[in-house]
Amino acid sequence: MLTDEQAMWRVQADADPEAFAEIVRRWEGPLRNLCLRMTADLHRAEDLTQETFARLFARRREWQPSAKLSTYLWRIAINLCHDEHRRRTRHGEVPLETGEDGEHTPHLTVLQPTPHEELEVEERADQVRAALKRVSEPFRTVLVLRHYEDLKFREIADVLNVPEGTVKSRMVEGMSQLTRLLKPADSDISSIPAP
Fold first, then answer.
1. Contact at 8 Å (CB) between 71 and 111?
2. Which of 87, 121, 126, 174 has a C-alpha 20 to 30 A away from that of 148?
């Protein structure tokens, strides 16, 4: 099986359709999840994912074989998400619906949660998603890449083309903003009397 970089080398050298299809197969899900988390709009996320692959192919000559393909892909997708955010802000657009990525993080549980506990977890996840949409750029980008895409600080620095120290400071500020945005929800929850 080819590595990502070997497949991309074939795409770059020969415009190999099978190698490109393999890259799309491997990266479509992760890129769609990233775009969904950045835009909170499933349809836009799907469009941006396809646009990422279109740009990858169109700019295949720009890719450096010494670089990781994942870094190049993340960078293209993040830039497209930022462009989309600027376009929507400029035109005052608001998504009609919020998409769900439909994937659950696998975890081990000894006891099945009750429906009430499941509802609380889902409500909390909705609150975090809503607060994350309100975290300002570029802090949201770092939070998404670190906590949802599980990239290391060094990888995020490569994707964003900034020093690793900048990534860490953006992470601190992003977490601070997220915490402030979630505090009202925490106080609302704690002020509800127990049944």
1. no
2. 87
Report the number of secondary-structure helices (H) and strands (E) in the chain. 8, 0
Burial of 132 (0-12, 13-18, 19+ CB in 10 A): buried
pLDDT in tens, 37-47: 888 888 899 99
Taking alpha carbons only, the member of 109, 162, 114, 111 closest to residue 137 is: 162
One-letter amino acid at 154 equals R
Of all residues in the chain, what percent are helix, strand and coil, respectively (each to 5)?
Answer: 75, 0, 25
Q: Write the CA distances from 87 to 61, 75, 82, 83, 93, integer angstroms.
A: 28, 18, 9, 6, 8
Determine how many CB atoms are found less than 10 A away from the CB of residue 47. Answer: 16
* CA atoms of 44 and 61, how far apart (whole Å): 27
Residue 173 tokens read as 């500020």
The residue type of 56 is: L
Q: Which pLDDT tens digit goes with each residue over 55-90? A: 999 989 888 888 789 999 999 999 999 888 888 777
Cβ 129 vs Cβ 98: under 8 Å: yes
